[in-house]
Specification:
With 200 residues, the chain is an alpha/beta fold. Helices cover 38% and strands 21% of the residues. A seven-stranded mixed β-sheet has the order 3-2-1-4-5-7-6, sandwiched between helices.
């Protein structure tokens, strides 16, 4: 009996991937607009900014901050509507001075940071913001970590809201979550990695 070699998660992503420009066009129905960033760079900043602007979002949760690149782009959009971003971040003593360093004092007015692992921080964030317009998952990259957080974020997302997960080629969590819930995602290649988007 011939054994079928299992498809790797990055191969599954590659088989469905489109460009970031096409992803934005499919979701918002028009070409992109971004105040600073060039979409040719391997970052999700312009994607996140455009999606937040399209939704006219005022309530966003993100997991994973690092230097605060995605955080900054969300806040640039949210400040136009006096919105609010709650970020969760796994504390790393070796990097604590760099956490959110790209967030200016002007933007920090619209930001709240919870520095704990997802299993503690995410329920706290959702207690503060029970319904959200958009979320961005970029923290615990393990299968179990994703499968813990994805349903919590999805259930809090309003109808028409947008769910974004980065580095979905790490494992099959994003694929399984979509298939288990009958969801049809968009997948884009960003540099050497993949980002997934689902609209509720």
């Amino acid at each position: 009996k011939r054994l079928v070699k299992p498809v790797r998660s990055n191969e599954w992503c590659q088989s469905q991937a489109i460009s970031l420009e096409d992803m934005i066009l499919q979701v918002i129905g028009r070409s992109t607009a971004c105040p600073v960033e060039d979409l040719s760079e391997p970052t999700n900043g312009a994607l996140l900014y455009n999606l937040a602007e399209y939704l006219q979002a005022t309530r966003i949760i993100e997991t994973g901050v690092a230097r605060g690149e995605s955080t900054r782009w969300f806040l640039i959009s949210l400040k136009n509507r006096n919105g609010r971003l709650i970020s969760t971040n796994i504390p790393r003593p070796d990097l604590w001075l760099d956490t959110g360093c790209l967030v200016t004092d002007e933007l920090a007015e619209y930001w709240e940071l919870i520095e704990q692992p997802d299993r503690q921080a995410l329920p706290k964030a959702l207690e503060l913001m029970p319904q959200i317009d958009m979320c961005y998952y970029d923290s615990d990259k393990s299968y179990n970590g994703r499968m813990f957080a994805y349903p919590l974020l999805w259930n809090a997302l309003r109808r028409g809201g947008i769910f974004v997960s980065d580095d979905i080629d790490d494992n099959f969590a994003f694929k399984d979550f979509c298939e288990n819930n009958g969801l049809e995602p968009l997948i884009a290649k960003n540099g050497a990695r993949f980002v997934g988007v689902i609209q509720k």
